[in-house]
Amino acid sequence: MKHQLAIPFFLVSRWIKRGNKWTLSLIIFLMSIAFVNLVFVAALFNGIIESSNNQTINTYTSNIFMAPPDGDDAIKNTTEVLATIRTIPGVVAASAQMLVPASLKYQNKKGSWEVLAINPEDEASVTIVNTKMTSGSYLDENDDDQIILGRDIAGGHNGNSTSLSLDGVKVGDKITLTFDSQTKDFTVKGIFYAKFINTDQRAFITQKALHELNPSLDNLATSIIIKTTKKGNEPEVINQLKKTTLQGNFYTWEEVAGLMSSIADSFISINVILSTVAVLIAAVTIFIVIYIDLINKRQQIGILRAIGIRPYVIQTAYVLQSAIYSVSGVILGTGIFYGLLVPYFKAHPFSLPIGDASLIVNPADFTIRAEVIMWVAVVAGLIPAFLITRSKILEAIRGK
Amino acid sequence: MSSKSALITVKNISKIYDLGEIKVRALQDISLTINEGDFLIITGRNGSGKSTLLHQLGLLDRPNQGEIFLNNEEVTSMPEKSRANLRLCHLGYIFQEYALIAELTALENVMLPARMITSPKISRPRALELLRKVGLDKKTNNLPRQLSGGEQQKVAIARALINDPSVIFADEPTANLDTKAAKDVLEIFKQLNEQERHTIVMITHEEEETKYANRLITLSDGKIV
C-alpha cells in the first residue's frame, strides 16, 4: 500500500518536470488570474467601504456623535459639556458644532447647505477638514466674517453637484449668508475638498461669527463630535459618557452615517453577489482547464490502467496535480495581487465621491478564497479522473 | 505439448459491439487453451477479431458471453480491482504503439508497474537488468521521444516483464517497426519463450513472423479457422 501511495507523487513530479512547460505555465497563470479576480472584487469593495467609513469618521461625524437630549433643539452649556467629555478615558478631543439653517448667495446663485459654526481649533483636533484646503486657508478663532466652503458648494470644478453650487466662487469672493431673517456678507477664506460628498457640501464659520449674527446661540450646539483613541472603542466610551451627568444622546459614527451606512450595506451585498459570481467563474474556469488537461491525458490514463495501476492511484495523482496547479496559482496570484495591484491602487486609488478607494484585504477572507480555489481545483481534478478511470480501458487508450 | 499445464482456458466467448443500429459480432463462440510455455501467434485479416480476442485474454475488456480462466480461476466476472491486480502481477501487455508514458524515462517506464508492489530499491536493479537484456542499457535515462520506434517497443517489452508475468500479450508489436527492429523484437520474444519459458501470445498479420510460434491460430470473422 505504501508503495502505491508513493506513485502519485512520483508521477506528478515527472509530469511537472518533463511535461509541456507552456501548458503548465498557462494553467497556473489561469489559476492565478481566477484567484486574483476572486480576491480583487472583495478587496475593492472592502477598500470602498473602509474609505467611506474613514471619511465619515475623519471628516464628518468623528467617532461619536452627541445630539441634544430628546425634546431639546440644542445641547446647552457646551463649554462645561466639552470639559466633561474631555475627561472621559478613551476620548482624544471633542468639538461643538452649531448647525445654522442658512442660505448662501453669490451673485445670482443661491442655495441652502449645511453651515456649521465651530471653534476652528477644536474642530481641527477632531476632524481633518483643516488639512483638506485646496485654496485659501482654514478658519481662525477670531474670524468673524470669513467662511470656508466645501468644493461642492463653491462649484466651478466640473465635479459633483456643480449645477447646485455657487458656480465657481473663489477665495476672496464675498457671499451673502441669510440666517433668521438677517443677512451678512462673508468673505470666502478657503475652499476645502475632503473627497467625501457629505463633507464637501458643508460650509464652516466661527462661533464668533455666529455670535455676531445671533448672540442667543452662544454656548449652544446642535451636535458635539467626539474623537476617540481608536475605531471600535466607541460603545465603551459611550458607556462611560452615559455614566456622567451629561444630557444628550450619544451615537456611534456607524449609527449616524445614515446614507453612507446604507451605501456600505449595499456594497457588502453587491460584494457577496459579485464574489459568488467570481467563485462560480473561477470554479468553471479551473474545472474546464483541468478537465481539458485530463481529457488530453485519457490515453495515458488508459495505459496506466492497462498495466495494472489501480484507479485510485491514478485519481490521486490527478488530484495531487490539480492541487499543485491551484497552490501554484494561488501563490502566483498572491504575488500579482500584493506585488502589482495593491501598490498600484495605493498609488492610484479609485476616486469616488465617498473617498479614495484602494484595495484592502481581509486576511480571513483572503484565506477562504484561496481555499475555495484549491477545493475547486481538487474537485475539478477528481471528477474527470474518476470518470475516465471508470470508463473502458480500451476507450481511454484510444482517446475516446 | 501434452505435458504442459493449461494457463488460460477460454470457453465459448463471444464479443458483440453495439454500434447503435448495427451490432458487430467481433468474436463468435471462441474456445481455446493456452498452455504454459506456448508461443502462440494469432493471425488473420484486418477485422477478423485478433485484437478483440487479445483484449479479452489480457483482461482489458470483458466478453458478452463465455468464460475465461486464468490458472483455473474464472476472470471474466471478476471485479475490476482484482482484474487490475492480475494485469499488474500476472499479465504483461505490449501494445502496437508502445504505450509508454511520455514524461517517464525508459527506466522509469519499466519500473512503474513494479513500484505498485515493491520499493524502487528492489524494482530499479530489476528494471536495469531487463533494459540490459533488451539492449537498452545505454538509454535508460532517455525519454520515449528520444528513442526510436524499435527502442520504444523494447522498453514496452521490458515493462511487460518487470513483474515476472505468467503470460505476455503482444498486439502487433512489430507493426510500426522497420524490418531490423521487428526482427530484434521477435528475437527477444523467442529468447524469452525458449530460454526463460515465458508464455507469449502475439498477434501479427505478417506471414513470416508465424515461424517464431510453436502454436498458430487463425481467426476469420471472429471464429477460429
Structural write-up:
The complex is a heterodimer of chains A (400) and B (225). In chain A, 54% of the residues lie in helices and 18% in strands. By secondary structure, chain A is α+β, with helices and mostly antiparallel strands. Chain A folds into two domains: 2-56 and 262-397, no CATH class; 69-247, no CATH class. The longest helix of chain A has 41 residues, at 21-61. Chain B has helices spanning 50-57, 80-89, 106-115, 120-133, 149-161, 179-196; strands at residues 6-19, 22-35, 39-44, 65-70, 73-74, 91-94, 167-171, 199-203, 215-220, 223-224. The two termini of chain B are 21 Å apart. Chain B has a single domain, classed as Rossmann fold (3-Layer(aba) Sandwich), CATH 3.40.50. Classes of the chains: A alpha+beta (400), B alpha/beta (225). The interface between A and B is medium-sized, with 27 and 32 residues.
End-to-end C-alpha gap of chain A: 31 Å
**Largest interface: pair, residues per side:** A-B, 27 and 32 residues
The residue-averaged pLDDT of chain B reads 92
The assigned structural class of chain A equals alpha+beta
Task: Please report the first level of CATH classification, the CATH class of chain B.
Answer: Alpha Beta
Give a short synopsis of this structure.
The complex is a heterodimer of chains A (400) and B (225). Chain A is α+β, with helices and mostly antiparallel strands. Helix content of chain A is 54%, strand content 18%.
Question: Keywords for this structure?
Answer:
heterodimer; A: 400 residues; alpha+beta; 2 domains; twelve-stranded mixed sheet; two-stranded antiparallel sheet; 54% helix; elongated; B: 225 residues; alpha/beta; Rossmann fold; six-stranded mixed sheet; four-stranded antiparallel sheet; 6 helices; 10 strands
Q: How would you summarize the topology of this molecule?
A:
The complex is a heterodimer of chains A (400) and B (225).
Chain A: H1 2-18, H2 21-61, E1 64-67, H3 78-85, E2 91-100, E3 103-106, E4 109-112, E5 114-118, H4 120-126, E6 133-136, E7 146-150, H5 151-154, E8 174-179, E9 182-192, E10 202-206, H6 207-213, E11 223-228, H7 234-242, E12 249-252, H8 253-257, H9 259-295, H10 298-306, H11 311-347, E13 350-352, E14 355-357, H12 363-390, H13 393-397
Parallel strand pairs in A: 5-10, 7-9
Antiparallel strand pairs in A: 1-11, 1-12, 2-5, 2-11, 3-4, 3-8, 6-9, 7-10, 8-9, 13-14
Chain B: E1 6-19, E2 22-35, E3 39-44, H1 50-57, E4 65-70, E5 73-74, H2 80-89, E6 91-94, H3 106-115, H4 120-133, H5 149-161, E7 167-171, H6 179-196, E8 199-203, E9 215-220, E10 223-224
Parallel strand pairs in B: 3-8, 3-9, 6-7, 7-8
Antiparallel strand pairs in B: 1-2, 1-4, 4-5, 9-10
